[in-house]
Design a protein that fits this description.
This is Altered inheritance of mitochondria protein 6. With 287 residues, the protein is of the alpha/beta class. 34% of the residues lie in helices and 21% in strands. It is built from 9 helices and 12 strands. The radius of gyration is 19 Å and the shape is globular.
Length: 287
Amino acid sequence: MALTTRRRALTTLGAALTGTLVLPAGQAPAAERERRPGPLWPAHAHNDYEHPRPLFDALDHRFGSVEADIFLVGGQLLIGHDASELDPSRTLESLYLEPLAALVKAHHGSVYRGRRRALQLLVDIKTEGSSAYLELDRRLRRHPHLFTRYAHGRVHPGPVTVVVSGDRAARTPMEAQTERRAFYDGRLSDLGTSAPASLIPLISDNWTQNFTWAGEGAFPDAERQKLRGITGAAHARRQRIRFWATPDTAGPARDALWTELLAAGVDYLNTDDLAGLEAFLDARPSV
């Protein structure tokens, strides 16, 4: 990361923590964030890095999970959706790991002050999974007290839980480790297998490949029962459920689908519309 870019990032972070920065319109200062209601744990920021302020926009909207796509390039873990848009200054370390470490230090052990539940950081590997995971593992180990850790059969909770998604080859080196600071994002095909929640705490899959309903009209009873069977089976094994490719255009169809997902016990709602999901969840105080 270039020195000037690093200084700018650290200055912005420090100001966000102290509330001293003159912020752009619509950006909440730290003091205002502290007065807001608690985190919205089911809220998942899909492609979080595409927002103007990666991580911090999601935290301002009180999200419980953020997603970062990574490419292993020349030993660096670069952030982006496509290889053509990568910027050497936009690394996983600079946009996520360093800011999270600073937040947890400032908040005395948690991402959200006074909230012990872990923020989920979903890391989607876009290049070959095994080599990218091993580099990710090296970088996570630089922050020994930041991440939920698996060690010799036990899970030790931390302020941030890293879940690795994307290229499936990452699973092999992860399964071989007796100690790691990341977990694996399974698919519906992993549901009910011998893989424990200590390896696969999250099951994610494509909504459109498993369901026909997109929020218009009535939710077919057979699909509602299928969805509830999925969440029931996952929760019985202490696993959480997330679907991607759900409708994300504001309107009645999206609200109807989100409502059904919550009613069925789906753990994370996927969106690029941070304000829209925040407003939806705030209208449901039991969430």
